[in-house]
Design brief:
Helices cover 85% and strands 0% of the residues. The chain is an all-alpha fold. The chain has one domain.
């Protein structure tokens, strides 16, 4: 069988990174546009409180789905390094273990999430008028989360094989189908939040069907036997260690959203949470080029590290940093100068429109430097070093953002919440950059 992943170790790095990053970026862009347009549909057809309600639910559903992402990224790192070492058996065994772990863990957490629904929703900011609206969306979306976990896991494995276009298709199909079903269920059938949740969950199923078909086709190098589904202790331990990095990041993000929602609700009520919901969607949408470069970077770095091609590892880090920083600066300029127009797209609520532009500018003020954080943390995951990857992953949200979130609002009110975002970004960038320079110098020696 032709080793289609071998291009990671032979093609010129700039072209190779573009080949990997562009499909990943397009996939993330379309997925982010889907979330963005979904939010616009919900805001225009249901109301501003509906936007806030979705923002309450997202941290919970995304945390559970992030189990799949964590297992996908961790196993993808193992698979890429195994392919670099020409060990197809280990790569296939890793994939089988990923499938079992994804469904096992996500189903357990869904059961827990549904069992404690009346406790979880208020904790994440679903209070007052938002409670019942959030509950409708929460229950339906949570049923589909194990399928979303499989999609996130499978997408990362496809990319680890060196099939960025197929990974892109896996992101395009559910995004397009979600928008079509949004129009049908919300606008045509007038199902409100129930329709929004149903469209989201069914779109996960579309993605899962495509990913399953890919791995059954000749395009995949990973063809499973029943034995591959038996959990292997050494592989599950490595998936657990590396996957915990991604899971910890999502856990801290969910915790941050919980804290921000509650602080903003206490300071300004539902309208300020709606402002933060708009910002959250922009963060998902606007950083798509940087996320795409990061996703393209990981399998290239992992393969060349496994093959011990040191100069190529150094080159892919440098190239990824240049690309990511350039795109991040462009994103910052666009959002800064068009923040008023962006807010109007989401809602016609005058209170939200008055508060949103200033908040958007503050939150995105440090965007030009975020590429260092993304690439730095991703490098440690790519090479299988879980503890430094975990440390760098927790830096922004855990070490800086959450403490600043408690400190700044005491003196500056709501403005203090928005200021905490860029200050945490700058501090985390300095920390991550120092770590990356040290590690690279040690590796090249």
């Amino acid at each position: 069988m032709k080793d289609r992943s071998a291009s990671f170790g032979s093609e010129p790095i700039p072209q190779l990174l573009i080949k990997q990053a562009v499909p990943a970026s397009i996939g993330i862009l379309v997925m982010s546009l889907n979330i963005l347009i979904d939010t616009i549909f919900v805001g225009q057809w249901i109301g501003a409180n509906a936007i806030a309600a979705i923002n309450v639910v997202l941290p919970v559903s995304f945390f559970i789905a992030a189990l799949g992402m964590a297992i996908g990224i961790a196993g993808g790192s193992i698979i890429s390094r195994a392919l670099g070492q020409k060990d197809l058996n280990r790569a296939t065994k890793t994939f089988g273990n990923q499938i079992v772990l994804t469904f096992l863990l996500t189903i357990i957490f869904v059961i827990l999430g549904l069992s404690f629904i009346d406790i979880i929703i208020p904790v994440f900011g679903g209070k007052g008028q938002l409670f019942e609206t959030s509950k409708i969306y929460y229950k339906i979306v949570l049923y589909g989360v194990p399928v979303l976990g499989y999609c996130m896991m499978g997408n990362n494995v496809i990319r680890a094989e060196g099939k960025p276009k197929n990974a892109m298709y896996a992101m395009l199909l559910p995004s397009i189908s979600n928008l079509l079903m949004d129009y049908l269920f919300i606008y045509v059938l007038d199902l409100g939040m129930y329709g929004a949740a149903l469209a989201t969950s069914l779109s996960y199923l579309v993605c899962a069907v495509y990913i399953f078909s890919f791995f059954r086709s000749k395009h995949s190098e990973l063809h499973l036997n029943l034995d591959d589904l038996k959990l292997d202790l050494s592989i599950t331990k490595e998936i657990g260690a590396l996957g915990f990095v991604t899971l910890a990041r999502q856990s801290v993000v969910s915790l941050s959203v919980l804290l921000v929602n509650n602080i903003l609700f206490n300071l300004g009520g539902e309208s300020v949470i709606a402002v933060y919901a708009i910002i959250s969607r922009l963060l998902m949408f606007s950083l798509f080029p940087i996320l795409g470069i990061t996703q393209g970077f990981i399998p290239i770095a992992a393969y060349n590290y496994g093959a011990n091609y040191k100069k190529r590892v150094e080159e892919v880090i440098r190239t990824a940093l240049i690309y990511a920083s350039g795109f991040a600066t462009l994103v910052f300029l666009l959002i800064y100068f068009f923040s008023n127009s962006i807010a109007i797209i989401f809602t016609d609520n005058l209170i939200v429109l008055e508060k949103a532009p200033t908040a958007i500018r503050w939150v995105f003020a440090a965007t030009p430097v975020v590429g260092v954080q993304f690439i730095g943390a991703a490098y440690y995951q790519a090479i299988g070093k879980a503890i430094p990857a975990l440390l760098l992953t927790l830096t922004r949200q855990g070490f800086f953002f959450i403490p600043l979130l408690y400190f700044f609002p005491k003196f500056m009110g709501i403005d203090g919440v928005w200021l905490a975002f860029p200050v945490a970004e700058f501090l985390a960038t300095l920390f991550t950059g120092s770590f990356l320079i040290f590690e690279l110098k040690k590796y090249l020696k």
